[in-house]
Design goal:
This protein is mainly alpha-helical and about 120 residues long. Helix content is about 70%, strand content about 0%. It has six helices and no strands. Helix 4 runs antiparallel to helix 5. The longest helix has about 35 residues. It is elongated, with a radius of gyration of 25 Å.
Amino acid sequence: METLGQFLKREREFRGVSLDRLAGMTRINAGVLKRIEDDDFGRDTQAIYVRSFLKAYAGQLGLDAAEVLSRYEGQVGIEPLQTPVSAPPAADVQRGVGSYGLFWAALGLAAVAVVFVLARYVRH
């Protein structure tokens, strides 16, 4: 039976992506990616990090991340996460950016008001 590491390496090579190129694409050290392909998930590496690396690896190659994570969990014998690790919803991201925008708009209005008041005092 093909291991997860063998599967990932086969898929990467099939797509003509070098390990170094994948490292650049995922921003994961090539040595870490090599250990993943060697099925060396490291006893000192927490499963949450391995899952994150696997999601990035799968995403850059166009593989189904859920399938890759399921293979990993089955291979190492750990329980699946109850909630998938993912990016925050777009609304949360927009709310964060919007609050900064509101701050800068208020600061700009205050600056305009100060300039207006000072201009009135200079004229009189």
